[in-house]
């Protein structure tokens, strides 16, 4: 909620480059299509050298709804120059770490971060309103890395979360200097990094995150039930998420638009993607 404002505003942040612009559009449109309440929505796209045409297409999403504003954020990418990247994780993924300081003057108390490779199937206002129980973020367990804190040099019984969907308490993040601590971990422990920004965020935010229902971030490994749940309660939560996912997150190298196979939500995703007119990457 912005200061001096009675009506809640939901700020949503994502990140995109030209390659991911169509997928960002699919994700954002799925957000708007599933809003059940009429609330102001402020969308921020971290701009990783998006072309003018791709920016225009994203702006047109906001223009179609009087309650939606969309703007672009610019992050200093130089601080991430030495960070590990891979075939499906580029420097763009790291930029979310710098978001809270960029929004500190906006007056928001919380922000919702969504990866571009997600498909939203429920009203995200419910997710945004989640009580974080005095934790810095709300997130969903990553089933394939549930016990990965030891690998990161952390002595804790806490689980490891997926950073693709996060509800962030901006004031607490700033007060605890999470951005700088995460950058420090990336720079000082690059030998431990396998899963990019997500590893560093877990190393800094362990025991400081509120576990959300898995339905809010049904990662590919959850959809396919690849990993045994750590507890009986999580077994039930995983099953409930598969039965009625609120956000489907196409994690990993295999995406609906390339090598993913037999995913129950792939056909729906590709149908939505087909409606997106392809924009020539890099066009001005």
Q: Count the DSSP helices.
A: 10
Q: Give helix % range.
A: 25-40%
Beta-strand content estimate:
15-25%
Shape: globular
Strand order across the biggest sheet?
Answer: 3-2-1-4-7-6-8
Q: Based on helices, strands and strand pairing, what is the structural class?
A: alpha/beta
Mean pLDDT over the residues: 90
Could you explain the architecture of this structure?
- This protein is an alpha/beta fold.
- 31% of the residues lie in helices and 18% in strands.
- The chain contains ten helices and ten strands.
- It has a seven-stranded mixed β-sheet, sandwiched between helices.
- The longest helix has 13 residues.
- It is globular and about 50 Å long.
Features:
284 residues, alpha/beta, three-stranded mixed sheet, disordered N terminus
Give the helices and strands, then pairings.
Elements: E1 10-16, H1 21-33, E2 41-47, H2 52-63, E3 68-73, H3 99-103, E4 110-114, E5 118-120, H4 124-128, E6 137-141, E7 161-169, H5 170-175, H6 178-188, H7 196-205, E8 209-211, E9 218-219, H8 220-223, H9 232-243, E10 247-249, H10 266-274
Parallel strand pairs: 1-2, 1-4, 2-3, 6-8, 9-10
Antiparallel strand pairs: 4-7, 5-10, 6-7
Give a brief rundown of this model.
By secondary structure, the protein is of the alpha/beta class. Helices cover 31% and strands 18% of the residues. It is globular, with a radius of gyration of 18 Å.
């Amino acid at each position: 909620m912005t200061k001096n404002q009675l009506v809640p505003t939901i700020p949503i942040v994502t990140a995109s480059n030209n390659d991911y612009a169509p997928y960002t559009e699919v994700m954002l449109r799925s957000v708007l299509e599933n809003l059940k309440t009429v609330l102001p929505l402020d969308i921020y796209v971290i701009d990783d050298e998006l072309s003018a045409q791709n920016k225009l297409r994203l702006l047109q999403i906001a223009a179609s709804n009087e309650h939606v504003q969309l703007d672009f954020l610019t992050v200093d990418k130089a601080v991430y120059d030495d960070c590990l990247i891979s075939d499906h994780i580029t420097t763009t993924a790291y930029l979310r770490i710098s978001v809270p300081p960029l929004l500190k003057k906006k007056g928001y108390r919380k922000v919702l971060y969504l990866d571009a490779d997600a498909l939203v199937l429920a009203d995200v206002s419910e997710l945004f309103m989640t009580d974080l129980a005095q934790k810095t973020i709300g997130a969903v367990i990553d089933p394939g890395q549930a016990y990965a804190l030891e690998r990161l040099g952390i002595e804790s019984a806490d689980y490891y979360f997926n950073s693709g969907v996060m509800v962030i308490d901006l004031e607490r993040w700033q007060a605890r200097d999470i951005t700088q601590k995460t950058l420090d971990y990336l720079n000082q422990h690059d030998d431990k990094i396998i899963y990019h920004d997500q590893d560093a965020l877990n190393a800094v935010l362990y025991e400081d995150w509120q576990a959300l229902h898995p339905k809010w971030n049904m990662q590919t490994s959850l959809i396919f039930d690849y990993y045994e749940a750590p507890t009986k309660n999580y077994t039930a939560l995983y099953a409930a998420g598969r039965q009625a996912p609120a956000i489907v997150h196409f994690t990993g190298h295999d995406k609906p638009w390339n090598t993913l196979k037999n995913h129950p939500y792939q056909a729906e995703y590709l149908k939505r993607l087909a409606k997106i007119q392809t924009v020539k990457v890099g066009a001005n």
